[in-house]
Amino acid sequence: MRLLETFQGLFEHTKYLHRKSNLGDTVAASFYEDLAALGKSDKLTKRIESHDRVINLKNITVGRSARRGDGTFGELVPSAEAIVEKGFVVARGPTANIEIGAETKILAKAMIKQIDRVIGDLKRQVEMFKSHGGNPICEGFVGINFADLYTSYEGDHEWPTDGKKYKHPIQEASEAEKRLRNLASPAFGEFLILQFRAANTPPFPFSWQDYKGLSLEYNALLTRVSREYDKRF
Q: How far apart are CA 153 and CA 226, in angstroms?
């Protein structure tokens, strides 16, 4: 499952820098690769193979303005070139519409402080997906850190949690998940919480809270999206 592998790679054996704006794009691109690999939708598979449907990682449909999303999938603009990057099956290119939209958020620390903003961003992203017309399938992926401690980085400065002024991730994770499920999840067709543990300190270990359960849940999501794609498009 490429999405889970890609997400893990953001933290494992490397310093996670939360201000890098393209991290969600890499996770979203992996989601579409997993859809293609699953092969549950003949319609989707054929369109991907013919490059009739592509990922638009710039997240702007031609002729329409919108806020940035982490990965949209739709019909390639006629006469435009579809580009297949090495190691990927799903091509990239400008899209005329949005059939599937995916948004990724990662809560590594200071979760309650930013939870209202994150929920607002998620809900507004769904509104953007739907504002382009049609009936897009909207997916939300949110990583929540359950580590006992965490260090973030701002330039040369390190900001470790102390459990008091700066809460450890484990102290806030359950409440953050509860609010996301209650307030953000209903806006999406599918919404998946990625529970993980990462301290973000050398040697930068990473683990999933329950990899087996998460992989089953993710595969079920991929199957439902494939079936829903056949119904809608």
A: 39
Angle between helix 2-9 and 23-38 (nearest 10): 160
Which residue shows structure tokens 């310093």?
Answer: 15
Is-contact 114 92, C-beta < 8 A?
no
Please give the backbone phi and psi of residue 200, each rounded to the nearest 5 degrees, phi first.
60, 35
> Tens digit of pLDDT for each residue in 127-183?
999 987 789 999 999 999 999 999 999 888 999 999 999 999 999 999 999 999 999
Query: What are the contacts of 80-89 at 24+ separation with CB within 8 A?
Result: 82/51, 82/54, 84/51, 88/29, 88/33, 89/33, 89/36, 89/37, 89/48
Residue type at 68 in one-letter notation? R
Q: Which residues contact 201 (CB under 8 A, 6 or more apart)?
A: 149, 151, 160
The answer to whether the predicted template modeling score (pTM) of the entire model surpasses 0.90 is yes
How do the domains of the chain map onto residue ranges? Answer: 2-232
Q: What average pLDDT does this structure show over 52-78? A: 70
Which residue carries 């794609």 as its tokens? Answer: 229
Q: How far apart are CA 87 and CA 33, in angstroms?
A: 10
